[in-house]
């Protein structure tokens, strides 16, 4: 496995911004439910969904499947965007949700709440305001570093 592709995904593929935002909003709903309930099952579901979108073909993500159906139901026009920053953001989401679950298991509920709350706020920025912090980190911090190594 090429470590550069794990850290800095490079892709010419495009995804639909509307579906991405709906997917993230569905995760926001689950994250808020987790913050309220501290349910290990919920954070596990969230982590699995982020893992799928981060490391596997995202089309098999349950949240993305539902988001695709919602987008079709509302007849939203497609808005193509670059896939790589969203994959990077999903990887950050997976790390945060995994740590939230891990902290819960090792009896650090406050740490779990804090990291999950941060993830929730970032997901709200992405889904509601169309501002993806992970994508911004990718564009200004990660990608330029990778680009310099390519030259």
Structure commentary:
The structure is a single chain. The protein has a two-stranded antiparallel sheet. It is mostly helical and 151 residues long. It is globular. The chain contains 7 helices and 2 strands.
What's the total number of strands? Answer: 2
Tell me roughly what share of residues is in helical segments. over 70%
Terminal residue distance: 21 Å
What does the radius of gyration come to? 15 Å
The unreliable regions are 1-7
**Count of individual helical segments:** 7
Q: What's the arrangement of strands in the largest beta sheet?
A: 1-2
Quick recap:
The chain is mainly alpha-helical and 151 residues long. It is built from seven helices and two strands, in the order H-E-H-H-H-E-H-H-H. It is 77% helix and 4% strand.
Defining key terms:
disordered N terminus; 151 residues; mainly alpha; 7 helices
Q: Any chance you could write out the topology, listing elements then pairs?
A:
Layout: H1 3-7, E1 14-16, H2 17-37, H3 40-55, H4 62-73, E2 80-82, H5 83-105, H6 109-129, H7 133-150
Antiparallel strand pairs: 1-2
Helix pairs in contact: 2-3, 2-4, 2-6, 3-5, 5-6, 5-7
């Amino acid at each position: 496995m090429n470590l550069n592709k794990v850290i800095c995904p490079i892709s010419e593929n495009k995804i639909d911004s509307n579906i991405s935002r709906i997917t993230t909003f569905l995760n926001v709903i689950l994250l808020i439910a987790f913050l309220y309930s501290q349910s290990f099952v919920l954070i596990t579901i969230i982590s699995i969904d982020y893992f799928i979108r981060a490391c596997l073909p995202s089309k098999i993500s349950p949240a993305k499947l539902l988001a695709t159906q919602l987008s079709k139901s509302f007849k939203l026009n497609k808005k193509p965007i670059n896939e790589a920053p969203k994959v990077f953001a999903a990887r950050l989401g997976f790390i945060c949700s995994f740590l939230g679950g891990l902290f819960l298991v090792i009896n650090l509920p406050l740490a779990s709440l804090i990291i999950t709350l941060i993830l929730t706020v970032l997901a709200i920025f992405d889904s509601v305001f169309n501002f993806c912090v992970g994508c911004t980190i990718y564009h200004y911090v990660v990608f330029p570093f990778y680009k310099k190594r390519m030259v």
